[in-house]
Amino acid sequence: MGPIRGYRKRRKTEKMVEQMDFANSEEGSVDWWDDFSKRISGLLSPSKGLDKFESVFKISRKTFNYICSLVKDPMMAKPKNFTFLNGKSMSLNDQVALALRRLSSGESLIAVGDSFGTNHSTVSQVTWRFIEAVEQTAIHHLRWPTDQEMARIKTEFEHIQGFPNCCGVIETTHITMLLPLSDQLSDDWLDRSNNHSMILQAIVDPTMRFRDIVTGWPGKMNELAVLYSSTFFNLCEKGERLKGKKVKLSGGVKLREYIIGDLGFPQLPWLMTPYKEKELSEFELEFNKRHFETRVVAKRALARLKEVWRIIQGNMWRPDKHKLPRVILVCCILHNIAIDMEDEVMDELPLCQLHDPGYQQEGCEYVDDKSCFVLRDKLSLYLSGRLPP
């Protein structure tokens, strides 16, 4: 899965929400939640700092209403009439609520169905219809930045730890799966930690927004192989991405646009990795420290993704490996929507960096062009204030 289109600025999104007259419709009325909350069981113990609605769905009502406005046409276009066990038809809000709960709780189809008063097959069908609708109508929330947006991103990255002209942080994580016995006999999906897993590679901006993702590959693939398989890599190699203006450092050094990544990635003209030698100079140690602290935004983004959308946290029970990449994509889109809407619920969540427990850092020995190491040395000197004028 290559680069995917992304987000609109908040003022545009907010304007769209304001244009939806939820207050005068059954779908958007405050009464919907009052009625719905009486019909669900076992979900209404609010987390600290959150009301009951936010605890159940992990998003604010404003964001919920916006998501409903996005998926309304494709979800209601099909004639299928979903019902609760009591025979009552599900409204659009009911269906979106059911799908969001399935994605955010990580609970089984049966558990979600029991708490919502419907059967597990309905949970499955409604969730998949929601996933298809989000793919169809909300993919613009995940895209590579425009030139204007990139200028802001580079400024924000420089404010973090001083890296000039930095356009993103690349990071990978594993989505672990509990496969049927027949699939377990094959090592196709068995990774280096003896888990069956699927890889998610993401490029993240300073606000923890996903700007590009790649998923669908087996977890046994290393970061280098996943990167090389991506459309992003091909675009960079062709000079069609990270092609903005170079910045001049002291000493006449010109620095192109680039992203940064850990030691699992290769050092490339457009990808800056840390020093890995055992004995490092003072300015190299300073570079690595700044590099790590800048990469924290990607670690936090992936940790939050898994914390909020728990269907991809822990071992997924016998997932359809062909559908799982689409589930991951939609979770990434929903993650971005919450950021674009400036959802207050996100502010209540703790910031964690641990997104891939049980996995050790792998090194990459590949060398593309030794001149990129020279450029890293000059950047290191610049960051430490030792680059000659």
Number of helices: 15
What is the mean predicted local confidence, pLDDT?
Answer: 87
* SSE ordering: HHHHHHHHEHEEHHEEEEHEHHH
Main beta sheet, described?
Answer: 6 strands, mixed
Question: Beta-sheet strand percentage?
Answer: 5-15%
Q: What is the helix content?
A: 40-55%
Structural class by secondary-structure content: alpha/beta
The unreliable regions are: 1-28
Q: Looking at the structure, what is the overall shape?
A: elongated
Question: What is the terminal-to-terminal distance?
Answer: 44 Å
Gyration radius (Cα, Å) is 23 Å
Number of strands: 8
Descriptive keywords:
389 residues; alpha/beta; six-stranded mixed β-sheet; two-stranded antiparallel sheet; 15 helices; disordered N terminus
Set down the secondary structure blueprint.
Layout: H1 10-19, H2 30-39, H3 52-57, H4 61-77, H5 92-105, H6 109-116, H7 120-137, H8 147-161, E1 166-178, H9 181-184, E2 196-204, E3 210-218, H10 223-228, H11 231-237, E4 247-248, E5 254-255, E6 258-260, E7 271-272, H12 282-308, E8 316-317, H13 324-340, H14 344-347, H15 371-383
Parallel strand pairs: 1-6, 1-8, 6-7
Antiparallel strand pairs: 1-2, 2-3, 4-5
Helix pairs in contact: 4-5, 4-7, 5-6, 5-7, 6-7, 7-13, 12-15
Characterise the protein shown here.
This protein has 389 residues and is an alpha/beta fold. The protein contains 15 helices and 8 strands. It has helices at residues 10-19, 30-39, 52-57, 61-77, 92-105, 109-116, 120-137, 147-161, 181-184, 223-228, 231-237, 282-308, 324-340, 344-347, 371-383; strands spanning 166-178, 196-204, 210-218, 247-248, 254-255, 258-260, 271-272, 316-317. Strands 1, 2, 3, 6, 7 and 8 form a 6-stranded mixed β-sheet that branches. The radius of gyration is 23 Å and the shape is elongated. Residues 1-28 have low confidence and may be disordered.
